[in-house]
Predict the 3D structure of the following.
Amino acid sequence: MADNDTIYLLKECDSGSKMAVSTIDEVIEKISDSSMKQLLTESREHHEKLGNEIHSQLIGHHTEEKDPSVMAKSMSWMKTNMKLGMDNSDATIADLVTDGCNMGIKTLHKYLNQYQAADDTSKGLCRDLISIEEELCKDLRKYL
């Protein structure tokens, strides 16, 4: 059971880190403020680095990585493009990314609770991902 919880938690973290990178990639070229663009570039790098660590753990457990669901990516894409179509501002982008961070934080906490038998390494990676999301959310407040 513990090994299954570890794998499930790692897969959800893998999916979450990929979703974050994808979202940042989708909006970064639309940002006009250079400081905000730098903030998102750095956060993307943190997400990608942590995603690589998660992927290494999955390989160590002889299991496949997990991509975000097509539905989640599609919904994110639609929401992003609808909102930016109405107001293509840095504040709108900050709002969209903040919403994504909050959803990620909530979901990752849910999985931490659901997969309590996961090993300490995977729980630590999950907490690291939550921390990256919380920090980005906090740093984006000044752009809302």
